[in-house]
Amino acid sequence: MGKKSLFNDDHFRMQLKASLEEVNVSEALHEKTLQACRDLLLSTEVPDAKTQTEAAGVQIQVVENGHNTHGILSFAGRHAIKLRIVAGVAACILVVLMVWDYMPKMGSSQTADFSMMEDADNSVMRRGTEKNMPASAGSEDEEAAFGGTESEMAMAAAQSPQEPGNAAPSESDPICFSEDSDYHELEKSENREEMGDGTAVAPAGEIAQEAPLIVAVTGTKSTILMLSSYKVPLTVNESRRDNKPSTKILNDFARNIEEQHPDQMVERDGLFFAYQLKNDFTMAELESVQSYQDLISERGLWYLPVRAENTLLLYPFAMQTDGTTTLGEPLTALKDDWVDKLSDDSLRTNVIERTGIKSIDTFIIIDVDNGLGFWICWETDGQSYVMPYMDTPDVFSLKNGEIFSLKAVQEKLMP
Amino acid sequence: MPVSDTMAAVERLATEYGNDVLRLATSILNSRELAEDVHQETFLRVCKAWEGFRGDASEKTWLIGIAVNVCRDMMRSAWKRRVTVSDEMIAAMPDTFSNKEMDRRMDHSILSEALAKLSKEQREAVVLFYYQDIDVKEIAQLQKVPEGTVKSRLFKARGKLATLLGGELHG
């Protein structure tokens, strides 16, 4: 038994409340807030045809089905450059993600183990995506996926994918999509092949949709999510398979980081991931380019964001035809003040630089729990993208075949 | 939902919980200026989200959840934002305080400093638990972590606060 505490719950509670007693909303602040709310609500109204023809001063009518005028979309319209304000999704986004196919070496298609597999036993799952697939309806499944522990994640990963269906927005997901929004869902395919290193690869032509590709890799100590942030037609064929990084390659790569940059404390316990910007790349091209940006815009390049004590490093790496990897210098070293750098403009710039896209129409950042992980979503030319920017275990709460609509993610992460 | 209905709800919430939001933000951000920004931003988000409020949680919990998220956003965007003390602010300060007032302000200052030294997750948990009287289960939902994590955060926070405030934990 220790000494009697000078700190106890009741006393502290009382102390805390007393200290805040004088913190009150002034009349001015109250009015200012309400006025801002009124302005917001009025500005988001979309009068219907009847209202539009009526003279000013007529009672304003709300268009019930004016999806784009509600929620994040309208909000974003007014705060386009504010990240945290979920920007617009003007045409409604429905992006998707996640996935997880099956895990060939795990003995069961219904069971996933995130703490498994040495190199040779790793799996890379990838799935094509397909337009006009059903929206994720939010739901319990997603909740489990985002809120789960690692073991829950593993269990969740075994869930079966959703059924294809109508592309129309569901009732439970009303603000995500406009009528002409693309729906993307990871395509369920039973027709897979497996590479010699345990990498499961979709057969040629399977991934041929203009859609994001997500590759999830599980390893002994790592869960790696690779996400193609490019919406380019992806065609998997024999000649390209060797250019796909397997878990072994990624683990080699991680070891390279540790060897070549011993000062960086690489966290490998499920805390790094790579995302693919393009899927075709040669070393010669890497060496010949003048800048990484050129490379990224023209050729494939893999990045491996690594967190090392408040520092986010983005390592580019390339694979040579003999299967070896070459590690680039970290492109970005966001030091202690990385949070500062996660401003609207810098993030936007980063995404543009890293992806080679020309512009970003709408931009969204979604906080994951403790501020260390983000999903960045953006829309360009009517296409929607989502990618993890930093990593937390929660990011890896994947489910087999799970689809995460933007709205569903937002609902879970930004009430 | 008609705008008037939404506005009425927002007005009611602002009246009923406005102080809670402001105090929560003040505790977390340790800045009245930022807290006022959070206050406004929170209710703007309420405007947009009200239609989708399903009543799964209490209004207060839902609102506090939004405020917490706004605080997080604010911390990111305003991280290390320098607070400049203007001449006007200095001029507005009284030259002297009564001893009692000085003690009270000192206590407040010590408490604020102690809170500021907690991690933001711990600070959130502490403020939600001790000030907002939200139970661990609901905090877990707000912070999107398991209840055990909240308990752990509170436990660690108590330990730090005990040290910072000059007490010791029961052993």
Task: Spell out the key features of this protein.
heterodimer, A: five-stranded antiparallel beta sheet, three-stranded antiparallel beta sheet, disordered N terminus, disordered C terminus, B: 171 residues, mainly alpha, globular
Structure description:
The complex is a heterodimer of chains A (415) and B (171). Chain A is α+β, with helices and mostly antiparallel strands and 415 residues long. In chain A, 28% of the residues lie in helices and 17% in strands. Chain A contains 13 helices and 15 strands. Chain A has helices at 9-20, 27-44, 49-53, 71-78, 139-147, 150-157, 238-241, 247-260, 283-288, 292-298, 338-341, 344-355, 406-413, and strands at 123-127, 129-131, 184-186, 193-194, 200-201, 214-218, 223-227, 275-276, 302-307, 312-319, 325-327, 333-334, 362-368, 373-380, 383-390. In chain A, strands 8, 9, 10, 11 and 12 form a five-stranded antiparallel sheet that branches. In chain A, strands 1-6-7 form a three-stranded antiparallel sheet, with no helix packed on it. In chain A, α5 packs antiparallel against α6. Chain A starts with 8 loop residues before the first helix and ends with a helix. Mean pLDDT of chain A is 40; it is low at 1-5, 47-247, 263-303, 307-312, 319-325, 329-343, 362-378 and 386-415. With 171 residues, chain B is an all-alpha fold. Helix content of chain B is 74%, strand content 0%. Chain B is built from eight helices and no strands. Chain B has helices at 3-29, 32-49, 59-77, 87-92, 99-116, 120-131, 136-143, 147-164. Chain B is globular, with a radius of gyration of 18 Å. The termini of chain B are far apart. Mean pLDDT of chain B is 74; it is low at 78-99. The chains are: A alpha+beta (415), B mainly alpha (171). At the A-B interface, α1, α2, α4 and α13 of A face α1, α2, α3, α5 and α6 of B.
